[in-house]
Batch of 2 targets.
Target 1
Amino acid sequence: MPISTWLMSLAVAPYAVDYFGDVRGVQLSSWVYPQERELGYSAFSAHTRPVFDFFSDRIGPYSYEKLAHVQANGVGGGMELASSIFYGYGDNGPSRQLIAHEMAHQWFGNAVTEADWDDVWLSEGFATYFALPYTEYKDGRDAFLEGVRRSKTQALNFAIANPGSTIVHDNLADIGSVIANGAQIYQGGAQVLHNIRGVIGTDAFWAGIRAYHGRYKDRTATTADLRRAFEEACVAAAATCPDQGEDLLWLFDQLLKGGGALQVDATWRYDAPSKQLHLTMTQTQTTGVVRMPIEVQVTTAAGASTHVLQLTGRNQKFTIASEAEPTGVTLDPDAWVFMRSSIAAGVR
């Protein structure tokens, strides 16, 4: 079984060991310090199988013959070693989110390993993001969106404060700095995947993920390899994927190689005689104008409707037909876009 050298491990300690079954032919176990066996045993046995099934069903088959959860001194959070995940956790034990993040690495970072440290987001951004769809599966859409928005806030705070930093490194010389921009690599990388999903649609997104994993499983891959997988999935999806998803170089370059983040200030007013909503969006970031499809939700007494607007300029005006005066207008209601935005009603 091909395994990148940095993912190999050896743990030595007087462990208490729990072999708690197997799933799809893969042996499951936990290795914890004897004095904490109850805490570790219960968490690992409760969460491992459902997380494993979730990722296997949506991404593809697991690569290794076993999956061991190993308690280890000197590890903060988790370390995604191939088939043996090392954990350092507090008095409450390993959380479901931590276990899901580290297990996601077995598919991305381990089975599919970034070919160069410049692309470390292919490991950490993926693991951070894929723990969120599992949250949706277990806890519902609202919990998922809450997690997305929390992640987005962390990533935006860093990106806006450090506009010269990018998610994909530019020929990184110092390996010690590979995750110096951690919020950008982990949370920002997760937001890149969510933004791509918003542009090409959920079905094409998952098809692209399965193709990428299947093609590069037990191999190395690059950001360009991922982009091509999404583009091919979009072409195969035909009418259900927008034309702009068939060549995603523009989006990948903006999100991964451009510094800062999209920032939008918007105002709207309703013209009752023409039954039209007039919306103005202004890009306020100092790092250059970007292109982005943005959903706008218009709510009236009769209900809500969603419209996709193509943002391409510094200052743009849009018109949306509306039979009744809106009670609210929301930019990006499902938090697809990596941006900071505000919207307010203007003068009527």
Note: Helices lie at 37-58, 96-107, 121-139, 141-161, 182-200, 202-216, 223-237, 249-257.
Target 2
Amino acid sequence: MPDKNVLVIGGGVAGLSAAIDLARLGVGVELVEKADALGGHARQFSCKATEKCVRCGACVVEEKLRDALEHSNISVSLNSEIQKLTKSGGRFSAELQKKDGESRTSETDAIILATGFRAFDPENKKPYGYKLFDNVITNLELERMLREKSIVSRPSDQQMPKKIAFVQCVGSRDSKLGNLWCSKICCGSALRMARLIKMRQPETEITFFHIDVQTFGRDFQTFYEAAQNEVRMVRAIPGDVFKTDDDGLKVSCFDNSAQENVDEIFDLLVLSVGITPGRDTKNLSALLNLKTTDTGFFEASQEGIFTAGAALGPMSIAEAVASAGYAACEALNYLDIQKNWELG
């Protein structure tokens, strides 16, 4: 039996990574996830490799899931949430409740909070017609489509679209919503998916509406130059979307070069939705006595409670794994466990 135990709240990439790092060093870990499966948002991501790996990170979650489920020092509690937390004699007592109402208490020496993020709900951007028009989908829905079917089809009729438009910064960098931050990963993810679609469905025309393009990866410039040869880049954000009689989508935007509004019809519209604070952030902040930033994400940590991954703010899968490693190191130092380790 391990001498020390850590409660990890959240079973996405960051939570899995922290749990594995700790377990490999002899720490007992209870991994608590409110959903009915581990993996978080990343478990629905598609590999975006074209002629070579593009380091999208989609394969990481499968590796982490396997390692976590196989490790004897990790126990998993699904459909469970923390309801109450007390601390006495340097240890935490957490009351956990399952969705069926069953409650129990978990004693632990430290806590890692890795509750991830909530994807912005594009129904709050009425002009785009999400949930009104069948052929308006989110980037996360496109991820699932590519993962499950390998090709892209229109939800309205299952036909392959001839023209696809990506719209960036839906729910990010938006002063009207009060979401002023950049979600960081959307440009890279959308462009990788666009190039993957062009490889698999070369006749498809793809347009990329953006404010500007967030850099990503060490080979960004090379990747971006290749993307520009395959994807039409439009530095503008559409204003309104209307459905045509044949389930097409008429997209209106302001053409800066012509200084006028222009309309164009697409078969499929993909909304790259922003990363926002997790749904439970306010409740957990009060429950764990953790502070949040002006943007609503968690601050780093307090004594005995350490935060990792996108609960801290927008970050890529690779950054979430690194953040989890840092949180695991902090927990080890807090528990006064001195070992030579290699995290990740």
Note: The first strand starts at residue 5 and ends at 9.
